[in-house]
Amino acid sequence: MTKAIDSNRRPDLAALEPVRLIILEHNPDDAERSIHELRLEGFDPEYRRIETLSELPELLRSEEWDIVLSDHTPPEFDALAALALLRGSEQEIPLVVVAGCSDEESEVNCLRQGVDDFIAKDHLYRLGSVTRHVLEKYEAQRNQYSLQQQLLQSQKMEVIGTLAGGLAHDFNNLLTVIFGGLNLARIALPADSSAMKHLDMVEQAARQAVGITSSMLTFSQKAPAEKTSADICALCRDVQDILRRLLPASITQSWRIPDEPIFARVDPTQIQQVLMNLAVNARDALPDGGHLTVEFSVSTEVSAELRALAPSLTGPTVCLKVTDDGIGMDAETRSRVFDPFFSTKSREQGTGLGLAVVRGIVRDHGGWCEVVSDPGEGAKFTLLLPRVEQDQAAPAAESEERLSVPRGARVLIIEDDEQVRSLMISALRGIGFDVDGFGDCQTAGCRTSPKEHDGIGETFDVVVADVELPDARGTVCLRNILNSNPSSRGLIIAGRTDDKELPAEAQQLSCPVLYKPFGMADFAEAVKKLAHE
Questions:
Q1: How many CB atoms lie within 10 A of CB 115?
Q2: Residue 211, class by beta-carbon neighbours within 10 Å (0-12 exposed, 13-18 middle, 19+ buried)?
Q3: pTM of the entire structure?
Q4: Residue 111: which H helix or E strand, with range?
């Protein structure tokens, strides 16, 4: 028996819940009864009734739906065939069977195959509550999936942070060798040598490489950005020189940079990394060549909508636009273009981190970025950063008198990277220091520990120790040596900026920290200063 409709079941019209559904049903009256039951339960249904399974795929492709109701009278209305079509679509949509002829075997079979619920038409009064329950279940599943994706994303970021921190030490060792080699080459060459300009180019590229590690560490929240008031136009010109050589000749470049300086509070290496990443992204979008435009401007007004998205953009802003006339992006790609690890390229061509790094850096600077693109129409990336007035330049301090090397001053260097150790030894010996160098803490400790025959160990005026040594932490090694030689001074060198323990350790030891990569001239001055204390 069909349950009589309760006249007291009156929905609150002001609180009707929208629901979009497909009804696979040959009888329009039965479809109307289903819609009526949904309205009584508080739904505001928008629906399409179809009479054949062949109509279902097109509806699934063209529109988004919340639920499908299907009769089950094979072969005309086969709910399991409808279920197969649903599971093959991109939408996660529940299926509820509303069967005219119900038997226990059919119901059990449908539920076992994955149908979300099964209702006989003579119990149609259950449809509203069943629909609500099924929709809530799917919403809970979507929320759980979203949380799982967030957890996965967090784990990926942790992996990036660990990887970036681990690579920073080795990467900065290599850069220290590059900078040290450049210093020595400049000393060896005449000042008017034509090779000097090539050395300048190498140094400029190496300093850009420093920004890669810095950007990765900041992106993974392992190290803070070092912001200062900087001329964005000058930073752009430095990158322009590199990109003119980096991009293929098939890509013509237009750089519209104002002559007057435009200041923003930024980390210079990170902003240059943003420009590099956007240019490389444009290069990939122009496989057959094309045009790249980079332009700067200043905006004095920010819309209320944009201020809500980026609260730091309250006043004048620096606007950077990078435009290409390449292959463009469809809506789906455009919506995910800033997502970490998302890439339309093969694994051999990229990791999907370039534009994610761009967004991370821009947001960390209180800015905003967006992209406008359509297939075949190229892409325009727009970045906004808060503009600042130029800092009042502090009066230039008179250059300090170059310190001399104390006669007979001895230095002990503990550095496991042989190339870096060799450069530091050469740099100090070249200006008059007596230097010994070792690659591990144990060997260095043996030289400085008291000897059995006289209770005296070798003494050094300055002890230089890398933080990451193969057999001990450099700060522990340095502490032991300084305890045995109270008159010695210590210098800590570090290959990574995300070491949270290092500042406190350096303070306890009263030792300065010199971060890699550094030039040999800076290193030598730091050692001379300690030797005079």
A1: 21
A2: buried
A3: 0.46
A4: helix 104-113
